[in-house]
């Protein structure tokens, strides 16, 4: 099971490429929903706005609850580096059970107040009705998604990104096929289900991914998922890391909530355009996150080995590769600037709003690359308090003031993406400074 950490170009990309494919599969599901729903014949703008609002809230909940993935990965990698995996044998089953119970509770509570929740996003009328219908179905996948994320955390801690890639590909392909079949229907066989069809497609794909994850964890890892007590000695540490990452995720999602809330206030065309821009932003983020995942995976193991020299080299190499990828993606999207918008909508008002801010999304990508890489490294080092404090500062002293000022001057989507740019600059700059301050001298 134990292998020396390999931070050569080949070694990094052996982990990064499967992680990129697995990561891209996730936003690809949302992009597919967005593109298909945005091109239906009945109320496409309202449906697109509704899926954007509901999808944003679902993503917020999932990422808040799924922070145990990074915590699991960090702890497993550290024990792998120290060659003491047997000491955390009971940990996976215990944390997966806690995650499952928590996700069921969150599902029930949000279901009771779902209409009021989306009214906070300024949704009303047909947009509100579609958002509620979509959420009631899509949220059934909460426990499944959290289970899959926990399994991915175990695999990553074991320095394995291959099986998460396989699971993600199966889920993405299945989701796309079901999206077309359920949203548009199959003549003479299946009635079109509109927005609800997109939701069911996601839930079925999540169920298949959960079954595959269970099988592969039992067959391909040394861990058993049989629940046993007493609690593992690391459960307290894992929950503490997870709690701080949850606070971080709350601050992060507060920024996303404000962005969608203000875009909805500006009108249906603006929230539809914001939905498209943000889905592409997420696609970029998860693509670059393949290298951030290597930081998460390998830095924890290097910490267990007390190998700070390799950790420093890892940070430099990952930053370089991630920036190159970000620039390539930005250039490709720049070349197909107008064609990309037409994939998602034919509404001229939506497209005009989208084209007005898409260049900002592309401009941000190198900044995002640095932020995501160091974010992954700090997760691998279990520096959850640093990440928590950073997001609080970036959100409440960066994003929010910029958004309020630009809203006052009626900059609309321009203001939202200016706020996102400041947000990412703070996240990247502070983490680089912190890493250099804490670890540069240990490299010598």
- The chain-level mean pLDDT equals 85
- Helix content range of the residues, please? over 70%
**Could you say how many structural domains there are in total?**
1
Are there runs of 5+ residues with pLDDT below 50, and where? none
Largest sheet: none
What is the overall silhouette?
globular
Termini, distance in Å?
30 Å
Q: How many beta strands in the DSSP annotation?
A: 0
Cα radius of gyration in angstroms: 21 Å
Helical stretch count? 17
Provide the fold topology.
Blueprint: H1 9-37, H2 44-65, H3 68-81, H4 91-112, H5 114-119, H6 125-138, H7 142-157, H8 162-184, H9 194-220, H10 235-266, H11 268-305, H12 308-335, H13 337-344, H14 348-363, H15 365-380, H16 384-408, H17 413-439
Helix pairs in contact: 1-2, 1-8, 1-9, 1-11, 2-6, 2-10, 2-11, 3-7, 3-10, 3-11, 4-7, 6-9, 7-9, 8-9, 10-11, 10-16, 11-12, 11-14, 11-15, 12-15, 13-14, 14-17, 15-17, 16-17
Short key terms for the protein model shown above:
mainly alpha; 17 helices
What can you tell me about this protein's structure?
The mean pLDDT is 85. The protein is mainly alpha-helical. The longest helix has 38 residues. The protein contains 17 helices and no strands. α6 packs parallel to α9 and α11 crosses α15. It has one domain.
Question: What is the compact description of this entry?
Answer:
This protein has 444 residues and is mostly helical.
């Amino acid at each position: 099971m134990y292998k020396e950490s390999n931070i050569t170009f080949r070694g990094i990309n052996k982990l990064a490429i499967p992680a990129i494919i697995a990561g891209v599969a996730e936003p690809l599901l949302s992009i597919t929903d967005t593109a298909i729903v945005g091109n239906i014949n009945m109320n496409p703008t309202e449906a697109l706005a509704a899926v954007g609002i509901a999808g944003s809230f679902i993503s917020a909940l999932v990422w808040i609850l799924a922070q145990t993935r990074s915590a699991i990965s960090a702890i497993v990698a550290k024990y792998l580096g120290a060659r003491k995996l047997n000491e955390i044998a009971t940990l996976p089953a215990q944390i997966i059970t806690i995650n499952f119970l928590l996700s069921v509770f969150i599902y029930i509570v949000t279901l009771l107040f779902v209409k009021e929740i989306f009214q906070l996003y300024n949704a009303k009328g047909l947009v509100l009705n579609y958002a509620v219908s979509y959420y009631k179905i899509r949220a059934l996948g909460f426990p499944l998604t959290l289970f899959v994320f926990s399994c991915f955390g175990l695999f990553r801690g074991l320095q394995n990104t291959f099986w998460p890639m396989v699971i993600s590909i199966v889920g993405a392909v299945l989701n796309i096929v079901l999206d077309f079949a359920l949203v548009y229907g199959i003549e003479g066989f299946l009635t079109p289900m509109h927005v609800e069809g997109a939701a069911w497609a996601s839930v079925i794909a999540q169920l298949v991914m959960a079954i595959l994850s269970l099988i592969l964890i039992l067959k391909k890892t040394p861990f058993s998922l049989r629940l046993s007590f007493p609690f593992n000695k690391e459960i307290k540490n894992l929950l503490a890391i997870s709690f701080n990452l949850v606070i971080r995720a709350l601050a992060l999602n507060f920024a996303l909530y404000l962005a969608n809330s203000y875009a909805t206030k500006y009108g249906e065309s603006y929230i539809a355009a914001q939905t498209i821009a943000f889905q592409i932003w997420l696609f970029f983020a998860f693509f670059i996150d393949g290298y951030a995942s290597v930081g998460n995976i390998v830095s924890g193991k290097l910490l267990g080995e007390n190998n700070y020299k390799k950790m420093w080299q890892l940070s430099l190499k990952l930053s370089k590769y991630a920036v190159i990828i970000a620039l390539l993606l930005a250039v490709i999207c720049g070349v197909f600037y107008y064609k990309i918008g037409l994939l998602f909508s034919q509404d001229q008002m939506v497209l005009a709003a989208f084209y007005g801010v898409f260049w900002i999304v592309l401009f941000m990508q190198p900044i995002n690359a640095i932020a995501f890489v160091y974010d992954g490294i700090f997760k691998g080092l279990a520096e959850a308090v640093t990440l928590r404090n950073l997001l609080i500062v970036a959100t409440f002293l960066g994003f929010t003031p910029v958004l309020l000022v630009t809203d006052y001057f009626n900059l609309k989507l321009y203001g939202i993406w200016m706020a996102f740019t400041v947000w990412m600059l703070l996240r990247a700059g502070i983490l680089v400074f912190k890493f250099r301050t804490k670890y540069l001298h240990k490299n010598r």
